[in-house]
Known about the structure:
This protein is mainly alpha-helical. It folds into two domains: 1-191, Growth Hormone, Chain: A (Up-down Bundle), CATH 1.20.1250.20; 209-434, MFS general substrate transporter like domains (Growth Hormone, Chain: A, Up-down Bundle), CATH 1.20.1250.20. It contains 17 helices and no strands. Helix 13 (296-316) packs antiparallel against helix 14 (337-365). The longest helix has 37 residues, at 3-39. Residues 196-206 have low confidence and may be disordered.
Amino acid sequence: MERNLVNVLLLGGGFMLIFTSFQTLGNIEQTIIDSIKKDLPSFTGDGYTSLAIIYAALSLSNWVMPSVLSAIGPRLAMAIGAITYCLFMASFFVPHVILLYGCSIVLGAGAALIWTGQGMYLSQCSTGDTISRNSGIFWAMLQMSMFFGNLLVFFTFQGKTHIDETTRSIVFAVLIAVAIVGLVLLSCLRRPSANVGDLPVELSADVRPRQAFLNAIRLFQTPRMILLSITFVYTGLSLSFFSGVYGSAIGFTNAIGTSAKQYVGLNGVFIGVGEVLGGVAFGLLGTRTTTRWGRDPIVIAGGVLHMAAYFLIYLNLPNAAPFGNTDAVSYIQPPSAIIAMCCSFLLGLGDACFNTQCYSMLGGVFKSQPAEAFSIFKFTQSVAAAASFVYSSYCGLHVQLVILVVLGIIGTITFCVVEFAVKRERPALERDYEK
């Protein structure tokens, strides 16, 4: 097996394990903190605020990471970033609001390191002929992280309406151990072997940090990027909703039954099924699907899937569900766990539709400025996710769904406008774009 393919598999395996831990914790964080407050009334931390801080720090850190990577390299950057994930999870053993929010800031900076490092390292391991394959392998392995940790939560939380300290400690210990194994895999990454051909994505160390920043600002002001940024904002809002809010809303809805907390984990599993299915269909097989249908039908399909999910969630869960345990009900009485899990699957599949096509668009249309383009994408998405976690602490479920519907429709339209404009350009550019 070629050396670079082994590196990609190690990269995907490391990220799968690290995000098995973090995505599971993010999914149950508000539920866990609600139980901690009952056992320890002096603890005033908030899960949504913690996640908002993480994404805010991530968005701000994105602008300086290319210059940091030019100094330390992507492998060391990813190892340091992985350590911050372990520290964040370990902070839950000592519930203290300052420690929680402080580790959230550190994790935000570490997340910028690990994701920027991932983009650079994956490009170094790829050529124009292998980038699609390698990206598809990485995406599919990453999204498998939604399965294992959430299955642990599903069985551990079985029959529990309150997550006691012993149960919490078991979950934290397992998640940290899994993340450490992921860190070990990332530490085993080898220097990429020399590739023949041009790299499709580059982060140049020759560009001065100030010049790179100015280039990104100029690109941000172009009409095409302004339109795409609306789509990026929507992906950030939907990410925060299904990764932090929706699972908690299910767990807080008492009318679902004594298994409500258990379904928080199963929700993550079904999101992962949708993500992996979409990743395989539009990532590994992306060249065929985009060549035959283009990117706009896939994004439109993602928008339709999300609209259907939001409508069913509106009917199924009460407005007060994100805030804490509630006996309230919505239009479907009693709330249906089956419908809730179907919505989880739709959210994951729709998210895969949006994200695979956003990456494809950025890698194809902005080949001359890939670092700036991906930096804008991560920055915009992270700001939106942070804002969403802030208003999630104050806005009911129905208001959040209205925001998602409006931004989802607008974001789908703006993506299609850019896609149509690109298709109208000269044939040579279009052929290059479709690759």
